[in-house]
Amino acid sequence: MFLITDANDVTSRLVNLELDLLRAFVTVVETGSFTRAAALLGRTQPAVSLQIRRLEDQLRSPLLDRAGKGVAVTTEGAGLLPQARRLLRLNDEIVSTLGEGDLEGEVRFGAPEDIATMHLPGILGAFARSHPRIKLSVKCDYTANLLDQMSRGQLDLALIKREPVGPELGVRVWSEPLVWVALDPSILETSPLPLIVAPAPDIYRKRALGALEAAGLAFRACFTSPSFAGQMAALRAGLGVGVLPAAMAPRDLTVLGDPLPPLSDSEIALVSTRGMGGPAGLLAQEVLRALERGPSSS
After folding, report:
1. 166-213 pLDDT, tens per residue?
2. CA-CA distance, 199 to 179, in Å (whole number)?
3. Which residues, 6+ apart, have CB-to-CB distance to 21 below 8 Å?
4. pLDDT tens digits, residue range 96-130?
5. Which of 26, 40, 164, 210 is most buried, most CB within 10 Å of its CB?
6. Where is the HTH lysR-type domain (predicted)?
């Protein structure tokens, strides 16, 4: 409870803050977007905006500055944020320890192998320890296959690679610059250029082939593997050129430039089949909080 004093009224009153309103406020601030927050909370954007207004009315203070393009926190909002997080954390700990319902069940989660390998083990491990009554199962596959499984009700939540689009296909988590890599830049003298790629429908394969065709460069697929570990082994063996996210390019490989064409960024998004409530919503919030600022911090 917060003690609120009206300067025009000598009496004071205690206000019971609604946790749903605090959760909406924290989610908007952490995602930097009403749209992303609405997707995570399983609500519409106007509904989330109304929740923030209600919280501001209760506290009689502006919490967000809506004058600019993005979401900016006011001085009052910055002061509330750590307190709101503590209240929500305490609530979630109590429910996790004593509660029933939402913290029991199953979450079927999907992700491409490279993302799952590089960015998710710590997040998923912490989630499993924090919510032992939630059964977590993880499937690694290509984005197209993950989306197909979601459409058939076989997954609840997934991280996917997508073309930069609006909010209609999941919640954008981060933008991913792509680079050409090889063991030795002298391989660029080989014609046709030997490529190390995943089979279709991998999005990085599509990017590589499309860019080379548009640039008029001859190439051949010298090593094709669905395994990220297999592709990395082939790159380290010097068999050819591959495409990796810039943040995942290891130091023992060389990032290549001209005459190879630049590659446009891809995006990583979080998609859900049920709206992001219940156990899937808990995992979605953990994933987004850990990864939304990019895989290096996230």
Report:
1. 445 677 788 888 999 999 999 999 999 999 999 988 889 988 999 999
2. 18
3. 51, 52, 54, 55, 58
4. 666 544 467 889 999 998 888 888 888 898 888 88
5. 40
6. 17-74
pLDDT for residue 3 is more than 60: no
Domain finish residue from 30, 65, 98? 98
pTM score, two decimals? 0.62
* Separation between Cα atoms, residue 190 and residue 2, nearest integer Å: 70
**Cα–Cα distance, 74 to 28 (Å, whole number):** 13
Give the DSSP letter string of 238-277. Answer: T--BEEEEGGG--TTSEEE-TTSPP---EEEEEEESS-S-
Alpha helices in the chain (DSSP H): 19-31, 34-41, 45-59, 75-98, 113-119, 121-130, 143-151, 203-215, 228-236, 278-291
DSSP 120: S
Strand, coil or helix: 179: strand
Looking at the fold, whether 148 and 201 belong to one and the same domain comes out as: no
Pairing verdict, β 178-182 and 72-73: unpaired
Instruction: Give the CA distances from residue 211 to residues 105, 162, 219, 261, 277, in Å, rounded to whole numbers and listed in that order.
Output: 44, 17, 11, 6, 40
pLDDT in tens, 6-47: 544 434 466 788 988 998 898 888 777 788 777 767 778 888
Q: Is 132 exposed, middle or buried (0-12, 13-18, 19+ CB in 10 A)?
A: exposed
Count of domains forming the chain: 3
